[in-house]
Amino acid sequence: MSVTDLGMPAFPAAAARATRDTRLRANLRHATHTIRDKRARAVGELADWAELRAAGRAIKDRTLRHLDHYLERLEEAVTAAGGRVHWAADAAEANRIVTRLVRATGEREVVKVKSMATQEIGLNEALAEAGISAYETDLAELIVQLGKDRPSHILVPAIHRNRSEIRDIFRSEMGDWGRPAPEGLTDRPGDLAEAARLHLREKFLRAKVGISGANFMVAETGTLVVVESEGNGRMCLTLPETLISVVGIEKVVPTWQDLEVFLQLLPRSSTAERMNPYTSMWTGTTDGDGPRTFHLVLLDNGRTDTLADTVGRQALRCIRCSACLNVCPVYERAGGHAYGSAYPGPIGAILTPQLRGTASELDASLPYASSLCGACYEVCPVAIDIPEVLVHLRERVVEGGRVTRRGVRTVIRPAKGHAAERAAMRAAAFAFDRPGVLRAGQRLAARTRRLHPRRLPGPGRAWTDTRDLPPVEAESFRDWWQRTRGGERGSGQEGAK
Amino acid sequence: MSSRDVVLARVRRALADVPRAAGPEEAPVPRDYLRAHGDESAADTVRLLAENLADYRAVVHDIHAAGLPALLAHLLGERGSRSVVVPAGLPAEWLAKCDVEVVPDAPERTPGELDAIDSVVTGCAVAIAETGTIVLDAGPDQGRRRITLVPDHHICVVRVPEQVVASVPQALERLSPRRPLTWISGPSATSDIELDRVEGVHGPRTLEVVLMTP
Amino acid sequence: MRVALFVTCINDTLYPRTGRAVVTLLERLGVEVGFPAAQSCCGQPQFNTGYRHATEPLALRYARAFRDYEYVVVPSGSCAAMVRDNYPRLGEKAAAEGRGGALAEAAAEAVPKTYELTEFLVDVLRVTDVGAYYPHAVTYHPTCHGLRMLGLGDRPRALLSHVKGLELRELEGAQECCGFGGTFAVKNPAVSAAMGADKTRHIRETGAAAVCTVDNSCLMHIGGMLSRQGSTVRPVHIAEILAGTEGDVL
């Protein structure tokens, strides 16, 4: 995991800070609401969206259920097409492999296409330690890198920045990294994009090594697919002599034909476009066109642990479209940094605690970073039932149980800090399973109702800080029924025990 | 044990619940989605392509084959291009009327040299109407991927109607994964500033698509 | 038709008037309602917080309590969704853990007979005009579990649109969560309050006299915030609107 994520506070504290940042709130609200309506329109254009979604889900499920088979076929096809395949069990190993490959070229600079996998493993930091400069070339990644900031969104890592903040970052930082921002740079998005074009072009033209991820890898043919908008992906994938792609093992799809499903699902879910401006597909190397050397690094880093969980496994269907972030009311207010990993939002709340485990306070708090409203599941193009997995992971946090960590089956203990809650939940369940006890409690509450304070002490303050408590009525429903009807059917007979 | 063996062994242990003897087919994949959206005539499909190209800010021109050389000369002239790079297999007569320096692409041409060239003219492999996409497959009239990337102005000629398909599934049927493919839907763009689309970042900022009928 | 009311623990204790309204409404529509006293809580608070095992006896109890009934009517979208979506999961997981099929059987018995109130009215009784009278401007907040888990769709609005005297006011951002989310409201109080602040602002902006939902749990949060803000907008469960007639004093 990325070093920057260590020592992060648990989600509720970080989120609370974000809710008080009015500029951040306004930036996030504006951006997520803009894309929400557009996505709905783009999806609405396709009469067979539900069928595409069902197919996307099924293709990913088939892949995951036979992942070893497809990975071996992929390796074979990539190798046959002139590529070299490397396997990395964890982040450290992936970083070592990439560092070694870059060093072997003799270069000290690499250009990068935006990649979630390399963000996840902290590749840039690892390369920096080895004296290699990695230049992010996606506009938003550039904004994040220049601003010494962290990404806060899967698709638009600088979503927390508005146009004038971006202009300020470009003005003050571009000169330290290469070509400075043009004189008198305005905050017009077109001018900002132009500034990025000029700044990065010299880097693209001299780059000898490119590093990318991939959206899809086709097992049948060995083809890799990168979906992008700006053309920085094309630059990194075709101009350098050496290309290194670091890709999670779950990104494989079985057949060439399967792309017909995902190339319809992804752009409409992601940028709300019929098709994104550029998609590159390459199979190994091609004589005279593009990199002469191609390395594919297949990354596990917790994915097989996730695969071992029959409920949580569905998180590996994710195609990183970010539609779930854009509709999430919690993400909109908490912002991406509160999630403390490369994967923010609802998908991050179920992916991070599976990739990293639930040992840290932050990771154990992520499954609770949701009101379970279900908006994420509704828009997910591969039908990941995020609320189902959230609840499943909550159980892991409070009850512990069997998990797989780094390939080893183990039993974890319940997370700390839930003792009082556990006792309360069990007491409630005990009372609810004994209607006599429940009724006694209701009557006690009713008799003392005039004594109830309007603001509660201790943990109850979390409720009464912003909300009044409902008054307790003098008579519970069951007492009213008993008094007026006398029996189960209202005809005098006593109800079941 | 190699990392390859470690990862594959982990995968197999993780899938203890899956009945594996039957192979991947045990997991059904329903393909009830459409091969194309709507059942349109060839002319309507071309019209849809033009609309969707224009919707993403590509500039669209219709021309008969006989008028193509004059149109290309006009487009390059209008833009003030002084040089144009062309793939080796581009029909020579296409640029016969152009009054600019024609630079044939060659493998030794560096990105820096390409950066000094104003325009590029290519054909395409297939065009997709529903998404407003042209696909290049590095064929003889399209050339290496970099020539349609570094110059700021790309003119792409689509042979109508035979190169136009309605949908993404139909396009993939026609394309070969053995070839490097570039799918292009409008000029380069970004949504990275406030999630709103702006055209013009690293790829060609002007994309002109010529729909050429015989 | 043997119909039982599952009043839910929140309504039983904090909102008994909602339960009484369901009885009034169903009896007015000619339905004889039973109330088995063995019922308690569906187990949603435990389940959604991660205490699946503490939920299991409650699911078994639910199935047992309503065994003699063809229909169970629930005036809560989220409690109905708990039974319909999550009881089968309890059964599957218990079976996978080698603990037998009792929970799966309980789920199979409970799921098909469980209806949220507006579903029961529209789908089973096939009425949208229940003869109600409520002379106020009302805005309707579709609660998440009713909207997305149960798929209630237009049913509540169809019922409200036939209420005499009622003026339905459109709510901006209606489909966005109010921020309650059960224990979410206390585990992430700042985000919950921020969501609630937006929801209550939109509610106030409608100028309606009342905000109506199919769930008192969401209304407890919404109403608690409105009350703290000094707003006079009343939180009202849909059953209470549908139970009212012209003879009543409102």
Helix and strand topology:
The complex is a heterotrimer of chains A (497), B (214) and C (250).
Chain A: H1 11-19, H2 22-44, H3 49-65, H4 67-80, E1 84-88, H5 91-105, E2 109-112, H6 116-121, H7 123-129, E3 133-136, H8 139-146, H9 163-177, H10 189-206, E4 209-212, E5 216-218, E6 223-228, H11 232-238, E7 242-248, E8 252-253, H12 259-270, E9 278-283, E10 293-299, H13 303-307, H14 323-327, H15 329-334, H16 345-355, H17 361-365, H18 375-379, H19 386-399, E11 401-405, E12 408-412, H20 419-432, H21 435-447, H22 461-464, H23 477-484
Helix pairs in contact in A: 3-12, 9-10, 16-19
Chain B: H1 3-14, H2 42-55, E1 59-64, H3 68-79, E2 83-86, E3 101-104, H4 111-115, E4 119-122, E5 126-128, E6 133-136, E7 153-159, E8 164-165, H5 168-174, E9 181-184, E10 189-193, E11 196-199, E12 206-213
Parallel strand pairs in B: 1-12, 2-3, 2-4, 4-7, 5-8, 7-12
Antiparallel strand pairs in B: 5-6, 6-9, 10-11
Chain C: E1 3-5, H1 9-13, H2 16-28, E2 33-34, H3 44-49, H4 52-65, E3 71-74, H5 77-96, H6 102-110, E4 114-116, H7 117-124, E5 137-140, H8 144-149, H9 155-161, E6 167-169, H10 184-187, H11 189-205, E7 210-213, H12 216-228, E8 234-237, H13 238-243
Parallel strand pairs in C: 1-2, 1-3, 3-4, 5-6, 5-7, 7-8
Helix pairs in contact in C: 4-6, 5-6, 11-12
The profile of the biggest β sheet of chain A is: 6 strands, parallel
Q: What shape does the CA trace of chain C take?
A: globular
How many independent structural domains of chain A?
Answer: 2
Q: Which protein chains make the most extensive interface, counting residues with beta carbons within 8 Å of the other chain's beta carbons? A: A-B, 105 and 76 residues
State the low-pLDDT regions of chain C, or none.
none
Indicate the radius of gyration of chain C in whole angstroms. 18 Å
CATH fold-level name of the largest domain in chain C: Rossmann fold
Strand content of chain A: 5-15%
Strand order of the largest sheet of chain A: 1-10-7-4-2-3
Quaternary structure state of the chains depicted: heterotrimer
Structural class of chain C: alpha/beta
Taken in chain order, the helices and strands of chain C follow as: EHHEHHEHHEHEHHEHHEHEH
Strand order of the largest sheet of chain C: 2-1-3-4
How far the N terminus sits from the C terminus of chain C, by CA atoms, comes to 31 Å
Mean pLDDT of chain A: 93
Total strands of chain A: the figure is 12
Q: What proportion strand of chain C?
A: 5-15%
